């Protein structure tokens, strides 16, 4: 990928995150042009995420041999007013890190420090380019890479790999916005229920004891899975329960009511 800046980070054994930034054509990202009568700056970001696995033999920098398992794209935008002081700009950086981008980046098992590094680097890159442009469309190429560990088979590495299909569906989020218009869906109260549910990623075999089996897909929780905890205490794969609750407001196991359908009419 041709970018103006590339960075590699990774604090958890078996996972690495590599990202770079490039300025692209406005029509690639900007779907609604901002007003022309202000001196404000507009940053448009499109995160282009690859979920890959890497064989240990290739070494930590052997990205050319990565096997791509999944992809996803989503858009984020930020407006920086001409008269913003440093306090407001710091607030925008925090909002971008914790809400706009961070909500999805946390699902990739990135640490807070890694999310901060990525978000601050993206904003710094956009700010540099905004010295010569009012609208800055930036592509963020992010490689979420699961690296084979010593003594681990490559198939086991693939099994625990982080992939978008095992996470909450992108369309649940108000931010970020699914880049593919055909996949977008109206934001509903059910989305908030799912997003706010406690979620964990299985890090140890002992986590299997939390869920004897997901009654929705009939599969057990394995290392690397993302699980969601319902209010009633039952546990399911996040991607399984998210799709179930689009059509039902009851726990599949005990029929506990998780939200009211009346909310959907308001």
Automatic annotation (TrEMBL):
Cited Pfam families: zf-RING_2
Entry protein name: RING-type E3 ubiquitin transferase
GO molecular function, one term: ubiquitin protein ligase activity
Domain RING-type: 214-255
PROSITE patterns: ZF_RING_2
Coiled coil (residue ranges): none
Keyword entries, A-Z: Metal-binding, Zinc, Zinc-finger
Domain of life: Eukaryota
Catalysed reactions, as listed in the record: S-ubiquitinyl-[E2 ubiquitin-conjugating enzyme]-L-cysteine + [acceptor protein]-L-lysine = [E2 ubiquitin-conjugating enzyme]-L-cysteine + N(6)-ubiquitinyl-[acceptor protein]-L-lysine
Organism: Perilla frutescens var. hirtella (Perilla citriodora)
EC number: 2.3.2.27
GO cellular component: cytoplasm
BP GO annotations: protein ubiquitination
Enzyme type, top EC level: transferase
Keyword Metal-binding attributed: yes
């Amino acid at each position: 990928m041709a970018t103006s800046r590339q960075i590699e980070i990774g604090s958890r054994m078996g996972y690495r995150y590599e990202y770079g930034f490039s300025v692209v054509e406005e029509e690639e990202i900007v779907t609604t042009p901002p007003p022309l009568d202000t001196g404000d700056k507009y940053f448009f970001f499109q995160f282009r995420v690859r979920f890959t696995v890497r064989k240990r033999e290739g070494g930590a920098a052997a990205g050319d041999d990565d096997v791509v398992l999944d992809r996803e794209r989503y858009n984020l935008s930020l407006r920086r007013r001409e008269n913003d002081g440093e306090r407001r700009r710091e607030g925008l950086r925090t909002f971008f890190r914790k809400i706009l981008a961070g909500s999805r980046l946390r699902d990739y098992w990135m640490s807070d420090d890694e999310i901060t590094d990525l978000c601050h680097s993206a904003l710094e890159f956009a700010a540099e380019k905004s010295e010569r442009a009012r609208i800055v469309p930036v592509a963020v190429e992010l490689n979420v890479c699961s690296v084979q560990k010593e003594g681990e088979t490559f198939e086991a590495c693939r099994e625990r790999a982080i992939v978008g299909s095992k996470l909450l569906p992108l369309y649940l989020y108000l931010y970020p916005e699914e880049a593919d218009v055909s996949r977008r869906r109206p934001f509903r109260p059910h989305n908030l229920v799912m997003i706010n549910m406690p979620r964990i990623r299985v890090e140890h075999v002992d986590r299997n004891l939390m869920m004897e089996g997901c009654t929705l897909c009939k599969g057990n929780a394995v290392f690397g899975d993302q699980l969601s905890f319902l209010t009633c205490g039952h546990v399911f794969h996040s991607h399984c329960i998210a799709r179930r609750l689009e059509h039902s407001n009851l726990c599949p196991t005990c029929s506990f009511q998780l939200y009211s359908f009346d909310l959907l009419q308001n």
